[in-house]
Amino acid sequence: MADTVQATAPSRGHDKLMIGQSAVSIYTAHAILILGIVVVAFPIYYTFVASTHTLQTILRPPLPMLPGGHFIENYSEALFGGVGRIGGVPVSTLLWNTTIVAFGIAIGKIVISILSAYAIVFFRFPFRMFFFWLIFITLMLPVEVRILPTYKVMVDLGLIDTYTGLIVPLIASATATLLFRQFFLTIPGELVEAARVDGAGPYRFFKDILLPLSRTNIAALFVILFIYGWAQYLWPLLVTNRNDMNTIVIALKKMVSFADADTEWHLVMVTSMLAILPPILVVVFMQRWFVRGLVDTEK
């Protein structure tokens, strides 16, 4: 009898969840969801289809709705052969540059932010809260406000057309510092006292306790910051002059000419597909950690 009750209990709970939901409302919800997916995914599919056709086919409308037979040829030409409008630089070089910049910005922001929040929450020193609010106030200063003095510093230090010049000015993050601080404030004082009684110093407490507790927050921030770094346009546009140091977003802008005949549209479409692939892969593979980092209260 007990087994019967246990077996049927979930189904009764499921029935309660379905109260008030008619078949029409369920089908309507699914239809709206499918329509939203089509609206979002169709431009990506259309870009992929264009990337598999020749330039002549793209310039002669209408573009076929099915993929063509030049997939390997177009992607090989873009990845390894080079694109004329960006000085013959292959897209693989652009992907490498953008990957280094995105990882550098994401990791740099996380490292600086978590160390800053650790110092503000767990250490007592003069003007501690003053420095925190000073960091917080920088949220009100957009990049455009400080971009000219930052560019001047990069020129004086000789960091134009370098990975350091692309990454370092963008690795400070008041938002990430605030998020880590708010999380650290939820850590019970008893845990800190237990670590102190156990003889754990500041480094051991940070490495063995805070970092494991923060892993979901770090994962969620990494996804957001990686996409932020990957999509950067204004700063890489200013700090790079050589085509082989461009990021893929800058290269895409350079590849498009005002005249259709001067634009290698099949290579532009290939580059567009390759530009959106890494962020999608990061989101897909880190989706579980990303969601947990945003909604999980049990760290």
TrEMBL record:
Keywords: Cell inner membrane, Cell membrane, Membrane, Transmembrane, Transmembrane helix, Transport
A Pfam family per the record: BPD_transp_1
Cellular component, GO annotation: plasma membrane
Segments crossing the lipid bilayer: 24-46, 100-123, 130-148, 160-180, 217-235, 265-286
SUPFAM superfamilies reported in the protein's UniProt record: MetI-like
UniProt main location, coarse: membrane
Annotated compartments: Cell inner membrane; Cell membrane
PROSITE patterns: ABC_TM1
Domain (ABC transmembrane type-1): residue spans on this chain: 95-286
CDD domains: TM_PBP2 (cd06261)
Any GO BP: transmembrane transport
Keyword Cell membrane: yes
Membrane topology, record value: Multi-pass membrane protein
Keyword Cytoplasm: no
Record PANTHER family: ABC TRANSPORTER PERMEASE PROTEIN MG189-RELATED-RELATED, SN-GLYCEROL-3-PHOSPHATE TRANSPORT SYSTEM PERMEASE PROTEIN UGPE
Assembly notes: The complex is composed of two ATP-binding proteins (UgpC), two transmembrane proteins (UgpA and UgpE) and a solute-binding protein (UgpB).
Family designation: Belongs to the binding-protein-dependent transport system permease family.
Function: Part of the ABC transporter complex UgpBAEC involved in sn-glycerol-3-phosphate (G3P) import. Probably responsible for the translocation of the substrate across the membrane.
Protein name: sn-glycerol-3-phosphate transport system permease protein UgpE
